[in-house]
Design a protein that fits this description.
87 residues, elongated, single chain, mainly alpha
Length: 87
């Protein structure tokens, strides 16, 4: 019998459009708010699980933005090196 996928651990689940629209700093701020809310126990179990899932999406979005920024820096560095380092 095949196992069902657990949506809480499925890293391929799509990121919500509202999260996609956030810049890095805003996404980190939202993630921090979620973590603080869960840690304080401000919400019940169901809301904690939903917050955890949203936090995972925020974290993946932040990592994606950082990866894109890293790639941009590497490309600029490579282009600068190919041009002999002159501006």
């Amino acid at each position: 019998m095949a196992k069902k996928k657990d949506p809480t651990t499925d890293s391929s689940s799509p990121i919500d459009a509202d999260i996609q629209a956030l810049g890095y700093e805003d996404a980190v701020e939202k993630l921090e708010e979620l973590v603080e809310s869960i840690e304080r126990g401000d919400v019940g179990l169901e809301q904690s699980l939903a917050s955890y899932r949203r936090g995972e999406m925020l974290l993946r979005h932040c990592r994606s933005l950082l990866d894109k920024a890293d790639l941009s820096v590497r490309e600029m560095t490579l282009a600068d090196a190919e041009n002999g380092g002159s501006n």
